[in-house]
Amino acid sequence: MPKIGLVSLGCSKNLVDSEHMLARLRAAGWQVTEDMAEADVGVVNTCGFIEAAKSEAIETILDTARYKQAGSMKGLVVTGCLVQRYANEMQQELPEIDAICGTGSYDDIVDAANAALGGHRAAYLADMTAAALEGDRDRLTPPYTAYLKIAEGCSNRCGYCIIPQLRGPYRSRTMDALLDEARGLAESGVKELIVIAQDITKYGMDLPAQKRLLPELLRRLCELDFRWIRLHYLYPDQITDELIEVIADEPKIVKYLDIPLQHVSRRILRAMHRPGDGEAFAALIQTLRDRIPGVVLRTSLIVGLPGETEDEFAALCTFLQDAQIERVGVFEFSPEEGTEAATLPDQIDAQVKASRRLIVEELQSGVLDDYNTARHGAVLDVLCEGWDDEQQLWCGRTYADSVEVDGHVYFESDDALRPGDFVPVRITESLGPDLLGIHQKEV
Fold this sequence. Notes:
Blueprint: E1 3-8, H1 12-27, E2 31-32, E3 41-46, H2 51-70, E4 75-80, H3 81-93, E5 99-101, H4 109-117, E6 122-124, E7 145-149, E8 151-152, H5 163-167, E9 171-172, H6 175-187, E10 192-196, H7 214-221, E11 228-232, H8 241-249, E12 253-258, H9 266-271, H10 278-291, E13 296-303, H11 310-323, E14 327-332, H12 350-374, E15 379-388, E16 393-397, E17 409-412, E18 422-431, E19 434-439
Parallel strand pairs: 1-2, 1-3, 3-4, 4-5, 5-6, 7-10, 10-11, 11-12, 12-13, 13-14, 17-19
Antiparallel strand pairs: 8-9, 15-16, 15-18, 16-17, 18-19
Helix pairs in contact: 7-8, 11-12
């Protein structure tokens, strides 16, 4: 059997696409290898969201192509958002690539791999909505954690964002298909289910009923054998009383909500084509904290949008100090070709953007320190992810720590633990964004 190696870049939605492609390849007789040096064909599933992601994708493509130059690899396939965005340029400027698949052509991955294996150049660039939303997955996550992608694409049309042009409009999967997939994941031993889409709060709005179906979906997912159900991402203007009630009432739903706010200035938000303002967001945060005890919030922010004034940036900082949001990711505005925001006047100097990002990061570091300190002495359930050789301690995450974006808990235990075990840990101290603790044995 020919061997295939795959590198998946970018977001969790892209990772699910990679899992679907691997399942198709394996079903077609390909052997999947984690060692690219062994692969007859290499696949790079790219992200093309912002400049940093594009640079990482190009570097990964060139790194993978070195196996071709060394003679161990016969072909190279590149898929994903960067292909959808720059297919012609990639074909012309990267002769190392044999075959490409856009975001509507993941179903063609077997044909693309076969073409590359035979030394043929090929391009699969179907309509963005053509790829199947269902199918088997060859999962790349640990056995105890899995993603459930409930929709594809995005129809929000934010002024700074290229995703609708790379993924097409919002397309919800049917509830029956989602429940069938989730049931299989639960039966396979998954303990943490992470519900994902570009905007999970709009789930169902494009289906025939044209109603928000996320609360119903969550209630039905909670009937399955999961320990944690984690939600990414909830848009602030779509969080309804019904959704809050479900999150508060269902013990399996992790009280950790990722709500991208992006800014608090009404003028800046309208330039982004986003709703809300600082006053509305503050009210939402207070409602969530009142109705969902122990809720931990994460948000993402953009600094340096064209025309952002010093006063508007100062208002953002004041909001963060007052709101005490536990998790914040801050990004410098990236003027992406094809977006409205890239053409706005009064572009901000790169040094100013970097300075503003650092100010927010420093401010948020203090908020996180205070939050971690408040957890000292508490006994928290920790999802054990294994032994950490560097720390010489067990490592895991609490409900307040999502995969790859938040900190970890490092803890002592005399027990022979397994990845996927839930362990009560008494927190003793902080270590930057991480926590240290001791396995709290039952008396």
